[in-house]
Amino acid sequence: MAVRGRRFHVDLDVDDESPQQQIGEGQTSSRNPWCLVTDIRERSPSAAPKPPSPSKLRSSRGGFPAHTNRTKSSAFRQRKAGSNPNLGGSEQSISETGVSRLAGSGLDQKQKIDLENRQRIAAMSTEAIANAQQEIRASLDPSLIERLLKRANIEEDQDTDDDLLIGAKSQRTPIEKTAPSNKSMGITPSQPSLEMVAPSLDPEDVQIKPPPDLQPDSTFTGYPAPPSFHFPLPPTPPDLDPEDPEFLSKLHSTYFPSLPTNPNSLSWMQPPSPGESEAYSPSRDNLHPSAVRFDFRGRLLPPRLASQIPITKGLHHHGIAPEAAGYTIPELSHLSRSSIPSQRCIAYQTLGRILYRLGTGVFGPEDHELCQGLWQCIGQGRVLDTLTAEAARDGDNGNRSCWVTATEAMWLWRRGGGRRWKAA
């Protein structure tokens, strides 16, 4: 059967809905009861809202909140008190007095509970005790009751276990003992427990003596030897003498046989040959200008002085004559093209000072054989070209320390006259 529908009209221009709405022509109806949410309207507050205030913290000595004392009893204690209707006012007063007495005594918690239970049982009537026994027997399994009674006897006999373990020969009298709490409840165990009572003895006074029939074991021949394990040991390398001329080759063959070897890279570790030792020897009568050595201030070092300078001054290097201190102009020109900025700075600074001394005539007049030979070495090593290229370079594009030292060297060269060597 089809349900006939009704036509209704909704006016969307009206903001406030009246309690009576027109559903059709000439019909009115109350507000729809299923419409639970209507228009939300904002209300202006009657007063200005108060800003939130920080919570107040109580200061304490240790930094932790202080302990709060409970003024009323807990819900657990109230339920426990209401679950026993047999307990009257006399029992509550007895328990309260007993607890107050035990609070000041030195008994432990177990003894306090036991004494409180005894006081409660003493305050109960015979009928209440009989009812409690019936409830316990009806709610528990008889085997469980038997096990609890045995456990109670074991706990009571724990105090005498230490005396039983001493092993002293003393008279022990078995005494029948039952739990007093079980007698008060009217429950007796199936078998009485026996407690061994022994006099208290000091362990230091007890003398332990071996039995007289104790004899050594004649079949004992000693403990078996531990099993032997064989671990292969590496071969012991021979002792190497650093003074041996073949020390480097023996070192490589002994400790690094699988690595490739390059004798040229270790040549600086070998002692200088006789030719290298005599390259700048004081015994020589003449020297080539390319072999003349200078210190870092640009001063000339004669062979006798170069052989006396200690290696701590930093003037020794692995060059042609490693035992002589100082640098030659070809070595400085080679060092000025190094990829390490610190090495280039040292070369630029030393060359600039040599150029100043050479231009001002410290090493002699210009037509002197030594001066001409030094200018020839400077020209062949293209020292001025290297300094000019480094000084012309902007300091931001390269190393600023190299740029500064090269600029200083060019300024010293200009101060010394700015002479250039021209090949004949």
Structure, explained:
The structure is a single chain. By secondary structure, the chain is mainly alpha-helical. The protein contains 15 helices and six strands. It has helices at 75-82, 89-104, 109-123, 126-139, 142-156, 161-164, 180-185, 247-255, 274-277, 303-306, 329-335, 341-359, 369-380, 383-392, 400-415; strands at 21-24, 27-29, 173-177, 193-197, 293-294, 300-301. A two-stranded antiparallel sheet has the order 1-2. A hairpin with a 2-residue loop joins strand 1 and strand 2. Helix 11 (329-335) runs antiparallel to helix 12 (341-359) and helix 14 (383-392) packs across helix 15 (400-415). The longest helix has 19 residues, at 341-359.
Strand content: under 5%
Main β-sheet description: 2 strands, antiparallel
Computed structural class: mainly alpha
Order of helices and strands: EEHHHHHHEHEHHEEHHHHHH
Number of helices: 15
Strand order, sheet with most strands: 1-2
Helix content: 25-40%
Write down how many β-strands occur, each being a DSSP E stretch of 2 or more residues: 6
Q: What integer value in Å does the Rg equal?
A: 57 Å
Low-confidence stretches: 17-29, 87-95, 166-187, 189-198
Rounded average pLDDT: 75
Shape descriptor reads elongated
Distance between the termini: 133 Å
Identify the notable features of this structure and list them briefly:
elongated; 424 residues; two-stranded antiparallel ribbon; single chain
